[in-house]
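Run folding on both entries below.
>entry_1
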Amino acid sequence: MIEQAVVSLTPDAQTRLKDLLAKEGNPQLALRIFVSGGGCSGMQYGMAFDDVRRADDLVVDQDGVQIVVDDFSAPYIRGSEIDYVDSLMGAGFTVHNPNAVHSCSCGSSFDTGGDAGEAKACGCGH
């Protein structure tokens, strides 16, 4: 049985991340993806460049782009796909999470239906 990847990148997200990481000029930089309590649906995503690896981090290397996920966040985003979207509403990275049973229209807040609490009305301005 093949274990499901914690997270993966679409080709568009991978290309964009490679460009952004190259501009930073630090070969140790990776994209850190994490979740935290809050947001209008109970949990929210966060992303940042990080050059620190902690003992409990999971590191995914996808064709030269490293993605780092802490062990708390991993179960909430397991199987997710990071995409880069450039639309009339703006450009940016978005998470397609198969674990989310409810997402807010802002795209950064979600509920897995577990112990994250009840979904709340969208308060993200959309």
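>entry_2
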Amino acid sequence: MAKTAEKSAGQRLPPNLPPVRVSRTFHAPREIVFAAWTSTDHVGRWFAPTGYTIPQAKVEARVGGPFEILMRAPDGVEHRVRGTFVEIARNEKLALDLAVTDAKGHALFRAFTEARFADALGGTALDVTQTYTIIDPEAAWMAEGAPQGWAQTLDNLSAEVRRMLASPDAPRSVVHASFTLERTYDAPVERVYRALSDPAAKAKWFGGPEDQWKPIERSMDFRVGGRERARGRWESGIVSTFDAVYHDIVPNERIVYAYEMWLDEKKISVSLATMQIRPAGPGRARLTVTEQGAFLDGYDDGGARERGTGFLLDKLGASLAD
């Protein structure tokens, strides 16, 4: 009797199996990534692991509103996810109370799911935490395989976000912004200038986070009229390209260049940047970076680019300490 009552009330996973936590950075504004979670059309294209299909979906983004999907495995086995939104903070957080059943309606487990959205280098950071309550002990293996399932599901979400951004119906926009950043380094002017102008020295710091971005192409012709190009692949599979032309160079003092940023085949910005180097005391140098940009179609904005540039300037400082 006690065992029956315990099973009907829900049997939690052993304490040594913590909640599943997964994170991913998407090259899109928070509004886009959030929208992918809150629309029937979007959820129906990604909320399942690789190989699964979603024949049915119903999503109403309001507290108490339904979040329901039918998932069909490659072998034809079906499971239903039924739940509701319990918390919505637009473009910041979602909380979902979900229950999974088999095709006959037999309850398998519950999954309380929290998704948090934040600005990050390269776009939007998504952090998902899912806590399981097992109803049928024979379904515990499904929860244990959740990390791999979520990794595949977020791959599908990445593809959906890219589809949303590339859609002919996606809004077109241009946001103009400018910013100025300064860093003072414990290195002479000449060494800072070398880190900006020498291909080998620049390769040490000019790129994304090492655990998220892998370089696939670099070239640098440092002269007035020369070009620089750097391409790398993010963990999501998206390739970012920096394509620049140098317009003014004063050795050890000033560099002016224009550059375009691309994600895959999509141009996301055109910018004019100026780097000025000044002595800041014995053996020290101050670098001032000013950028004026046109940010295209919601992929990026001045605040995101400023954060990214700050990240690179900090990496530059670290390379000078080597």
